[in-house]
């Protein structure tokens, strides 16, 4: 695997020269994982961050009744991490699991810190990623409060249609904050319209 796709991703977020993009990606290493593998663990401090090149990953936690609740679904290209836990070097409140076979680019905490201190473009890229992730989180939170389950599902289809094809129904339902049977009913009603 080469880093050209990773470099292109970085340049799509922050317009910089190829040389700077190569410098930023220098310490990333490629990782291939199979589906259903936890890559970050609840109650553990993450020692690395990942960029997802292909496949799908979810973050999840366990509720008070012992049910797995999907808190996010990640599709390429994006960072996969509990940013607060990673940067504060404290235990995460979520686990992160591959939903399909995945290709990820991994960088350890010390290398991230070194890049922040030595590469101004890396700092700017990191700032842009934090803003993007905050915006996505805020939009999701408001959607869970203001939108109907059907509207949340239709928004997901519109924004990330590949997720609908690749992610199991049970996980999609959990992510949307509804039961499997409710999601099945919504899908049926939409198909009849």
User: Which of globular, elongated, flat, extended, rod-shaped describes the shape?
Assistant: globular
Largest sheet: 4 strands, antiparallel
Helix content: 40-55%
Number of H- or I-type helical stretches = 9
* CA radius of gyration: 18 Å
| Residue windows where pLDDT falls under 50 for at least 5 positions | none
Q: What are the secondary-structure elements, in order, as H or E?
A: HHEEEEEEHEEHHHHHH
Class by SSE composition: alpha+beta
The total beta strand count reads 8
Rounded to the nearest angstrom, the distance between the terminal CA atoms is: 44 Å
Outline of the structure:
With 193 residues, the chain is an alpha+beta fold. Helix content is 51%, strand content 22%.
Characterise this structure:
Helices cover 51% and strands 22% of the residues. With 193 residues, it is of the alpha+beta class. The chain is globular, with a radius of gyration of 18 Å.
Task: Please render the helix and strand layout as text.
Layout: H1 4-13, H2 18-25, E1 29-33, E2 38-40, E3 48-54, E4 57-62, E5 68-74, E6 78-80, H3 83-88, E7 95-98, E8 102-108, H4 109-118, H5 120-146, H6 149-159, H7 161-166, H8 169-176, H9 180-192
Antiparallel strand pairs: 1-8, 2-7, 3-6, 3-8, 4-5, 4-7
Helix pairs in contact: 1-2, 4-5, 8-9
């Amino acid at each position: 695997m080469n880093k050209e796709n990773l470099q292109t991703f970085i340049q799509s977020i922050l317009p910089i020269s190829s040389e700077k993009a190569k410098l930023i990606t220098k310490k990333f290493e490629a990782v291939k994982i199979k589906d259903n593998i936890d890559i970050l663990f609840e109650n553990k401090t993450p020692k690395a961050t990942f960029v997802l090149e292909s496949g799908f990953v979810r973050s999840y936690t366990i509720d008070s009744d012992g049910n797995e609740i999907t808190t996010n679904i990640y599709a390429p290209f994006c960072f996969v991490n509990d940013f607060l836990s990673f940067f504060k070097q404290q235990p995460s409140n979520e686990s992160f699991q591959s939903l399909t076979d995945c290709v990820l680019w991994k960088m350890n905490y010390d290398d991230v810190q070194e890049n922040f201190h030595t590469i101004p473009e890396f700092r700017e890229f990191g700032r842009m990623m934090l803003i993007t992730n905050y915006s996505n989180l805020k939009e999701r939170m408001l959607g869970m409060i203001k939108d109907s389950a059907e509207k949340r599902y239709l928004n997901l289809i519109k924004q990330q249609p590949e997720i609908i094809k690749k992610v199991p129904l049970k996980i999609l339902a959990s992510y949307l904050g509804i039961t499997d049977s409710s999601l099945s009913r919504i899908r049926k009603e939409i198909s009849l319209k």
